[in-house]
Amino acid sequence: MATPSLPVEASATITEDRAQDIIVFEDVALAFEDNAVLKGISFRLPRGESKALFGVAGSGKSLILKMALGLVRPDSGHIYTLGEDVTQMREEDLFELRRKVGIVFQESALFDSLTVRDNVAFRLMEEGVSEDEIERRVREALRFVELEHTVDMFPSELSGGMRRRVAIARAIITQPETLLYDSPTGGLDPVTSTTIVELIIKQRDVYKTSSLLVTHRLQDAFMMATHCFDAKTNHMQPVPPGGRVEVPMTFLILREGEVIFDGELHDLVTTKDEYIREYIS
Amino acid sequence: MAAGDFLSGIQLISPSEFAKKKIQSLQDYSILAAQSVANLFRHPRYWADMIQQMDLIGFGSLPIVLASVFFTGAALALNSATTLSRFGATTVIGQLVSIGIVRELGPVLAGLVVAGRNSSGMASELGSMIVTEQIDAMRALGTDPLKKLVTPRVVATVVMLFFLTILGDFMGLLGGSVVASILLGMDAHEYWSNAWQTLVFSDVFMGLMKPLVFGYIVATVGCYYGLSTKGGTQGVGRSTTEAVVAAMILIIVVDVFVTRFLMVILGS
How far is A127 from chain B (nearest CA, A)? Predict the structure, then answer.
């Protein structure tokens, strides 16, 4: 089994290396009134790596994503995103940083009064990009998620799976350095879930971005660790025996506000920890 | 059900905790209200959103503002006619309606009507965006919701309530005129001439300053309750109700202080 919540020496290493890392959590704690949700968690997401976050409902997985963007402030500890300490930044400065990170929310969080086009183009319109350029990039992003035909539709006219795909298009349109996925397959049927995971793998392998993925479905993360995108067939393929995916995949498991596992697939499936074995069985 | 069982279901809150929450809310509201103005001097400015909100708030509220002030003007003329006829002074109805509508009833009624329609609308719209994570998504996309959503609503409400009040005042006078001419048999020219000549600068100034304050209250209160929504769809409903109640009460209370303040300033 790999590291449980990191000891002091490991934290020191994290501090030295954090410029290389996309996201670093250092002893982060958060409580809501008397309920301690996170109790001093530490982990790092190195550049060019994907990490899947697991934990039972209410274990603070989604909060970790929001904290990485400074949407929620921790009670203590430090969070470094793209080398910046988001816990010390003013909201005004955070807006600039957030433009470099894409996020897909649990329920998509599309703007229901805007069309698919305006949802996907939201960031570009805020940046004052020309109409022609917006049109081209929106089409490109929607083509990537295979939803070009929905460009003039409203979110209420889309199915749950389509909304997630539009949310992915919105997140990737500026080609951010990292992507955060909050339960992208939650509440979807197995076929649609596989489509979403395939898109995440496609995004990872085409653009080589780092990502932090919160999910309840182990099979999604296992699929990410064992499959890669084949541009020729436009579908994901299992990695041949002995091979590895180009963007390394690690797993992090939370239990009662603490990190109880942070390591690779091999470490996860060979762990002796009873709780983890039961969790992944 | 026993009294003990009933009481055990009630969550009691300590007075200090209650006071702390109220002070925190007041602080949050003050910050939002101040930032909504400060954002006018910072980039980016969302002119298109402001125009869109002016259309929704201003033109959307026009019929109900005009109708409510028209009939209030008519009722004011009717009521004052009853009293004034005892003294044989029905000719001053125009003056009475004019002063009442322009200084007080026009701005307050327009404010209350716009509060009822738009504070609730803002609270429910922003509240729904909170519970569906759209506000978080907006922040995550690098856009300040206060700049994008609050400031345009505040500017639009202040500007449009100003013009709605002017139109409302005219409709109030018209309502009085209709009653004076048709029911009381007064000469319309006399009514309008009285109504017009009785107004002095301080009356008009007071009547046009109030909607600026009321518009600011309507928008900031609506946005504040919307953005502090908690607890899903039930929370949205609660925010909507609270926003309307708070905005209306504030308008009525603040009206007294603004009136007194302007009287001191204008020396009237």
Answer: 10
A113 by Cβ neighbours in 10 Å (0-12 / 13-18 / 19+) ranks as middle
Which element (helix H / strand E) includes A103? strand A101-104
Domain spans in chain B, listed from the N-terminal domain onward: 44-266
d(Cα A140, Cα A148) in Å, to the nearest integer? 8
Helix, strand, coil shares of chain A as percentages rounded to 5?
A: 40, 25, 35
Number of residues assigned to chain A: 281
Contacts of residue A105 in chain B, CB cutoff 8 Å?
133, 136-137, 140
- Residues of chain A with Cβ-Cβ distance to B52 below 8 Å are none
Predicted confidence (pLDDT) per residue in B81-137, tens digit: 888 877 777 778 888 999 999 999 999 999 999 999 999 999 999 999 999 999 999
Q: Do A114 and A94 sit in the same domain of this protein?
A: no
The reply to whether A62 falls in a domain is yes
| DSSP secondary structure of B135-193 | HHHHHHTT--HIIIIIHHHHHHHHHHHHHHHHHHHHHHHHHHHHIIIIIS---HHHHHH
Q: Which of A159, A175, A191 is the last residue of a domain?
A: A175
**Centroid of chain to Cα B59:** 15
pLDDT for A107-151, tens place per residue?
889 999 999 999 999 999 998 899 999 999 999 999 988 899 999
**Does the residue A1 lie in any domain?**
no
- What domain range is A188 assigned to? 8-100+180-280
Same domain, A235 and A163: no
pLDDT of B187: 87
Q: Which among A107, A119, A125, A126 is the top mutation candidate for probing chain B, defined by the most B β-carbons within 10 Å of its own β-carbon?
A: A126
A77-110 tens-digit pLDDT: 999 999 999 999 998 889 889 988 999 998 889 9
Report how many domains make up chain A. Answer: 2
Do A170 and B134 lie within an 8 Å CB cutoff?
no
Residue A2, pLDDT > 50, answer: no
Residues A82 and A17 in one domain: yes
- pTM for the whole structure: 0.85
Cβ–Cβ contact A110 with B under 8 A: yes
Residue with tokens 């202040």: B158
Characterise B182 by phi-psi region: left (phi > 0), alpha (psi -120 to 50), beta (else).
alpha
- What CATH code is carried by the domain that includes residue A248? 3.40.50.300
Q: What are the CA-CA distances from residue B89 to residues A91, A133, B5, B80, B81 (Å)?
A: 64, 72, 65, 10, 8
